[in-house]
């Protein structure tokens, strides 16, 4: 009998009335296609790719069971026969590849961004503009009935199950927590009353959908907010859900308003599997664990140790639709690993844009970014081995072109080689590994330590210039002082630093450098949990106790010219994490700075028109970048055809998302 490389992850899961082919659940993600014109056709292609990739069970993005539960006035709703018929395109596409799929039912409650929001109590969420209406008894029962009706329609649409969204601070979670529920009737107060809404929804769904239908409940096991639940409360609800007929309980970690990172790249891999493990033995239904599980090795380790019965991975299936199939084939090196950057997935969704993936721009663009074999093979030169150049060279070679990649340094990866040296960004090395593997398999000729001239390039049919960026040196008196170092040199060489460090520039690079300087040595998972005030016993409400600040032994200043908030770095959903991390480490975040001069005493500045001397022993320049594109100018003068991509085309904030996507789009157009 064949021995799988990941026996626990690839073992089937018998649910009684049906069997899942393996222990991997593709977690729910809103993509923005749910509301788009022709979105269901694109969603069908998106989910079909993941079903083809052998995932055990897919869960869709959230659909509201009624109008008031929508996240925005135009968000997706699933409550009619017409909706059920439209969704058949999705279920049929998944079933055509032997997959199973469940529809997530999500009522936003007080997270709804519209004036019709409703919740257990009329308490506005800190992340919302709207105060919800307190639900009447009649409204509660009408909502419970709506969940049941949507479940029956999901079955009619061909879904294999539904997931009831009871975590992340949405309506059901709101009823369950004192934080959002101040009621004194049968729906509030005691744990029995607060959990009643969740249990009644579960009963209604089971009754409407029948016994042979998968019903998952996403249970908030660790709220990470004040006035959240204790572990005793969680156990009580889990047992109530089991009695009401739940098939699988999925883990939810943290509310959206929680000020603790849960899925960003700074979070250690598998950081919350211990939460799910605590519930093992309390109920007999299968338990799913989640968050920062992004390799088959991590998944296998969690399942082999008995911490959970299944693992949920969401964004790893944006990064690679074939994650499970590649693991099953014993080819983990071929997996495009999710680096948890959030830049093209969550950041896009929160801006109302279509989700995709920084390391895989084809995610959610399956019907648009299509690679076709070339009709005429070209000799293609790609200049620059950063992420733009690598992605272009790979895609072009896989289409059939003869590609040579030139890189002036001794390694490929460009700015990602710097990024992976930053604490909390170690995942970036996985992207380099993945693309180098593809380069090798595609047969790209790689020439390191080599600069090229126009004469050499005239022999090629097409030239792609991806020469990247160099640090910008601002015009400050004394900028050539020996204590001044640019960020590239600092990250690459990691020189010893004195006691006082000034960082000029508070963008993403400045934040990364400050993080690198102040990172505690040899931080374990328990140290990380302690730093963020997470109570592993979950005996404190919400699983929180006062965080433990880890002040650095160095005085660090992060400086920016413009006034306002300093130290966020890029990223809508991760910026606050960077800022809070630096504050916890005692970093001085200073805006409204005018730079005067650098000398032996340090950095002379004005802050809001008041003169200051920062006694810096080192000054690190993180003041942006400039394009390196002299070669493009030479090609232009020689009247040779070329394409300019990545940092060479536009320096801006270091934007790997744009660089990789541009590389692929250029390759598809060659």
From TrEMBL:
Which cofactors must be present for this protein to function? FMN; [4Fe-4S] cluster
Homology family: In the N-terminal section; belongs to the NADH:flavin oxidoreductase/NADH oxidase family.
Q: What is the protein's given name?
A: NADPH-dependent 2,4-dienoyl-CoA reductase
Residues forming the FAD/NAD(P)-binding domain are 379-636
* Matches recorded under InterPro entries: Aldolase_TIM, FAD/NAD-bd_sf, FAD/NAD-binding_dom, NADH:flavin_oxidoreductase, OxRdtase_FMN_N
Keyword match Metal-binding:
yes
Residues of the NADH:flavin oxidoreductase/NADH oxidase N-terminal domain: 10-333
Any single Pfam family the record assigns to this protein: Pyr_redox_2
Give the superkingdom in one word. Bacteria
GO MF assignments: 2,4-dienoyl-CoA reductase (NADPH) activity; FMN binding; iron-sulfur cluster binding; metal ion binding
Keyword annotations from UniProtKB, A to Z? Flavoprotein, FMN, Iron, Iron-sulfur, Metal-binding, Oxidoreductase
* CDD domains hit by this protein: DCR_FMN (cd02930)
PANTHER family per record: 2,4-DIENOYL-COA REDUCTASE, 2,4-DIENOYL-COA REDUCTASE [(2E)-ENOYL-COA-PRODUCING]
Q: Which organism is it from?
A: Salinivibrio kushneri
A GO BP entry: fatty acid beta-oxidation, unsaturated, even number, reductase/isomerase pathway
């Amino acid at each position: 009998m064949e021995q799988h490389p990941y026996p626990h992850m690839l073992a089937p899961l018998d649910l009684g009335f049906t069997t899942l082919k393996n222990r991997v659940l593709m977690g729910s993600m809103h993509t923005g296609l749910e509301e788009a014109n022709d979105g269901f056709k694109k969603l069908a292609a998106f989910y079909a790719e993941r079903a083809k990739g052998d995932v055990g069970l897919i869960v869709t993005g959230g659909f509201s069971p009624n109008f008031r539960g929508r996240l925005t006035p135009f968000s997706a709703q699933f409550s009619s026969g017409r909706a059920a018929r439209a969704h058949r395109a999705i279920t049929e596409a998944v079933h055509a590849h032997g997959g199973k799929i469940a529809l997530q039912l999500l009522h936003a409650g007080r997270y709804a961004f519209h004036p019709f929001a409703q919740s257990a109590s009329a308490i506005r969420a800190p992340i919302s503009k709207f105060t919800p209406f307190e639900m009447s008894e009649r409204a509660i029962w009408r909502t419970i009935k709506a969940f049941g009706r949507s479940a029956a329609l999901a079955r009619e649409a061909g879904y294999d199950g539904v997931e009831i969204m009871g975590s992340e601070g949405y309506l059901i979670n709101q009823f369950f927590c004192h934080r959002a529920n101040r009621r004194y009737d049968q729906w509030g107060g005691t744990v029995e009353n607060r959990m009643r809404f969740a249990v009644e929804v579960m009963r209604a769904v089971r009754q409407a959908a029948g016994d042979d239908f998968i019903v998952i409940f996403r249970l908030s096991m660790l709220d990470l907010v004040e006035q959240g639940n204790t572990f005793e409360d969680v156990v009580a609800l889990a047992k109530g859900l089991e009695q009401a007929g739940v098939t699988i309980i999925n883990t939810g970690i943290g509310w959206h308003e929680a000020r603790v990172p849960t899925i960003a790249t700074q979070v250690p891999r598998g950081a919350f599997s211990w939460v799910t493990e605590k519930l093992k033995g309390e109920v007999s239904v299968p338990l799913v664990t989640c968050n920062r599980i992004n390799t088959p090795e991590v998944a296998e380790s969690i399942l082999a140790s008995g911490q959970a019965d299944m693992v949920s991975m969401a964004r790893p299936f944006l990064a690679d639709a074939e994650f499970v199939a590649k693991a099953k084939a014993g080819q983990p090196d071929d997996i495009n690993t999710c680096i948890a950057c959030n830049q093209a997935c969550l950041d896009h969704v929160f801006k109302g844009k279509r989700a995709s993936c920084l390391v895989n721009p084809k995610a959610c663009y399956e019907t648009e970014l299509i690679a076709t074999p070339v009709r005429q093979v070209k000799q293609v030169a790609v200049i620059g081995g950063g992420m733009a150049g690598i992605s272009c060279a790979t895609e072009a070679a896989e289409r059939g072109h003869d590609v040579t990649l030139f890189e002036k340094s001794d390694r490929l990866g460009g700015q990602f080689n710097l990024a992976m040296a930053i604490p909390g960004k170690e995942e970036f090395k996985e992207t380099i590994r993945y693309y180098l593997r593809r380069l090798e398999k595609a047969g790209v000729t790689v020439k390191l330590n080599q600069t090229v001239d126009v004469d050499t390039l005239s022999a090629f049919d097409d030239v792609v210039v991806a020469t990247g960026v160099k640090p910008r040196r601002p015009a400050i008196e004394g900028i050539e002082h020996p204590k001044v170092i640019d960020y590239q040199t600092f990250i690459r060489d990691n020189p010893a630093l004195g006691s006082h460090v000034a960082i000029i520039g508070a963008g993403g690079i400045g934040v990364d450098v400050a993080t690198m300087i102040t990172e505690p040595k040899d931080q374990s998972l328990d140290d990380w949990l302690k730093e963020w005030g997470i109570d592993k016993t979950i005996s404190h409400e919400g699983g929180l106790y006062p965080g433990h600040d880890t002040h650095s032994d160095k005085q660090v200043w992060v400086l920016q010219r413009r006034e306002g908030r300093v130290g966020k770095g890029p990223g809508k959903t991760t910026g606050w994490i960077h800022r809070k991390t630096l504050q916890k480490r005692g970093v001085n975040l200073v805006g409204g700075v005018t730079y005067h001069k650098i000398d032996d005493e340090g950095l002379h500045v004005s802050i809001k028109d008041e003169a200051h001397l920062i006694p810096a022993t080192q000054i690190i320049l993180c003041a942006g970048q400039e394009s390196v594109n002299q070669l493009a100018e030479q090609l232009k003068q020689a009247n040779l055809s070329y394409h300019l991509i990545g940092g060479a085309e536009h320096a801006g904030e270091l934007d790997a998302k744009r660089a990789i996507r541009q590389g692929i789009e250029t390759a598809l157009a060659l």
